[in-house]
Amino acid sequence: MAATGRELPDDVLAVVLRRVPPRGLAASRCVCKAWRDVVDARRLLRADLLPRAVGGIFIEYCQLDSPEFLARPSRGPTISGDLEGFMPTFRRVVNHCNGLLLCDNYGELYVANPATRRYARLPPRPLPCLGEAFEQVECLVYDPTMSSQYEVFLIPLVPEEPETKLDSKTLQSEWPPSSYTMQVFSSTTGLWQEKSLARVGEAAGFATDVNSDYSWKVPHATAYWRGALYMHCQENKFLIRISLSNGTYKVVKTPTWLESTYYPHVSLGRSEKGVYCAMTHGFHGFSIFLLDESCEEMKWMLKHQVDLSSFTRKLRALEESGQRIDEGPWILQDINYNKNHSEEDNHKTVVEESFDWDSDDNDVINTDKMVEGQYAGYAGLLGFHPYKEIVFLNVSLRRAVAYHWNTSKFQDLGNLRPKEYYEIAGDLAEIDMAFPYTPCWLEELPGTNLEAQVDD
After folding, report:
1. Interval 225-241: pLDDT, tens
2. Contact 391, 406 (CB under 8 A)
3. Which in 174, 209, 278, 343 has the greatest CB count within 10 A?
4. How many CB atoms lie within 10 A of CB 303?
5. Phi, psi (deg, nearest 5) at residue 170
6. What's the predicted TM-score (pTM) here?
7. pLDDT tens digits along 110-145
8. Closest of 65, 64, 27 to residue 45, by C-alpha
9. 156: closest CA among 141, 171, 144, 139?
10. Cα–Cα distances in Å, from 456 out to 191, 449, 450, 451?
């Protein structure tokens, strides 16, 4: 008769349980007292290692070589946003998911964990399954509560000016196709493989009607929520929801209100209750929608709408009044400035406050006692808080602010302008892309052994 878990030596049982992902480990802990004692005594179930809190915000600025990192104060381990400090080559971040980043260096793809300073280089990406004329967008999927493994999707998109690149038959075909074939890398196998997703429901239209707009940034156009990948597709018309468990996908139209808005900037994100769509219109208009998936026909629900012009005027007037405004509490690490200055400066570390910043109560801005100024500025989105109904805002490239849309409360995060940035960028100064980062402290990163295979 085979030995049960109770009959296994504790050390052997611990080795087995250590390989179980957190959600399964929590269930294993409930099997019997002996298993619970092993899990608890060896602290195998470490919720503090999972991506459960915002550690900061990665920000790519136009005309700067490397992303900056706006670090949240914490008593825990310090996170450095200097990706070049541990990766061999780096150009830009193309996607992220639950603490891992997908990075590109002129075609080479890397998966990196800034918290543990580990990375894995992927094998060369294959050509698009639907033909070389199609573009490919990279999407990373990683859920450490389910598995230590990750996947990278190369999702084909209709190219710009499709009438000049696609044949007439393809132009008149449904888009996305009923069988959507794409390349997927699995860290389990270490290989790229073709994967076909079956469409559930109707297509968005025809390929000839899809006008691609690659001005949107993938980290703002994707979200992962409960086993599904959401990707906002071309020209703000629709998104696709990929169900990872059964290999199907569904087309979801964007909020119809967007059709009447002039040049809206649309972002997807995960927050407290699911997948949200944020839209900024003009310099101050801001709307938030929640995707209701309770029915077969998914629909967008308007959750909040606000004009932020009064707030931006008040914040600028406060700066111009001569009152001292601190750099923090969140600290911009000035990675580019430190990298490009003297060797002595390069070895200086940013001193960050050793306290746990409260996302509910710290540094609340009392707007009732503030006076509006003449300069309106603008407000842009940095990203969604993944666990609370909060959005992070860029106010006129000067301050980062957390906005609680249920209570209309503002919290000051800190300075958002890198040192000497205007001298470098001039009229091109702007934020190109940003996303909140939730650190994952699990040491294991599958695929680190791929480096030798790629070199061979």
Report:
1. 999 999 988 666 789 99
2. no
3. 278
4. 17
5. -65, -40
6. 0.87
7. 999 999 999 999 999 998 888 888 888 999 999 988
8. 27
9. 139
10. 15, 12, 10, 9
